[in-house]
Amino acid sequence: MRTPLVLAVVALLVLAGCSATAPADAPQTTTPATAAPDAAERPDPDSDVLGWEGGYWHDDALAVTTADGLNESERAAVVNRSMARVEHLRGIEFDEPVTVDVVSRETYREEYAGAGQASDALRTFDDAKFEALFLVGEDRNSIEVQEANRGSNVLGFYSPSEDRIVVVSPSEAPTIEETTLGHELMHALQFRNFDADIPSPTRDAANARSGLIEGEARFLDQQYGDRCGAEWACVEAGSGGGGGGDLHLGIYVMKYFPYSDGPGFVESFHEDGGWSAVAALYDAPPASSEQVAQPEKYQADAPTDPTLRDRSNGDWSRVTVDGRAPYGEVGVGGLTAMLAYPAYETDRHDDRAVLPPAAFLNTDGSSVDLSDPFDYTTPAVDGWDGERMWVYERSDGETAYAWRIAWDSASDAREFADAYRELLRYWGAEQRTDGVWRIPEGESQFADAFRLTVDGNRVTIVNAPTVAELDAVHRPA
Fold it and tell me: Which residues fall in a compositionally biased region of kind Low complexity (predicted)?
């Protein structure tokens, strides 16, 4: 069953070291204030206008108290004023109100963080894909790990099917973080006014799509936050943000891609053509996460199909999932997470890092850039040009995969292959023959056999339970 589409804003973790992490309040900045600076009293307009909603102008002050939470009337005032502010910034009218519910972190985990009724094929496919990325081993369920991440760091979401927003209160008393609300209200405008239900049959397609949708919402909520305490008053929401817990940092890096690189993608078009140029992107959305990370490649460097024919024997069959592409494609977001994760993985007593934090974190030398924390175009990943990952299953439940990644040049392919060999070594692999590696049982949670080949600008990775079974999964040409 396909998981219902929701647009969520997630908390930013400041990942500055190789072990400890510090939760930030949210992926936006607000300055608490109790009165709008020089806001003039104005009568309600005769008709609905931009910058006014439900009796409130965008720069009105509110007489609300957040220490004991927001009661129903206070919540309505905050929501209406926030709608007026999003209208003022984006230039689009809310023709109808948006339902906004506020829930606790515990309620969100219990009622919303799950992925629904996942099919056996989806579980098998995702388990193999996240194992291929060296993010989730055979000892864990990848969908459950993703659900746990959502429960720990989502701040709010918009459901297009229900036209409803759910905000996770950052404190025990039910309060609203205004820029989180503004972010989700922007999603309501997107789905009401644009063709924002863009197909996303692979992880890379999802990151590309979300790079536009989340990028625009994040770009707007940054403008919203910049005005708090300067041009208008913002309600203080209290401390909080992410809910802690067992957060998987590798999956976090992969799925934070739209919030990190999406705003810059949107801003590059806004600078040239204003909001109309951003709106036009919905008619021709980015084709890959690479185009979001490098806007100059938008409509100039379409991803290729690095053909990977089925060369398995009769023991192995391809796994496909209804509603998805029959193959996996993780793109620059997934590949960066794969190579970056060892810098934060703590179960292995190994000081090596395939990519040290300085290589994939955007810093000013001392602190992380909170508006664009991750660099998804490191040398080992820059030059991505398309991929196909086929997942295989045997009747006894064993899984395997064949994965081909195309690169812009042969040197790009070799650079990635070198980084991948370092990744194999990190997880305990030993080279058996030329291009063939084996992670012994008990060495790490990724004990398997691997064959890595480089042919021009193509890198092909084959995985099987044992070295002897590699040819059964994908026979060399």
Answer: 22-38
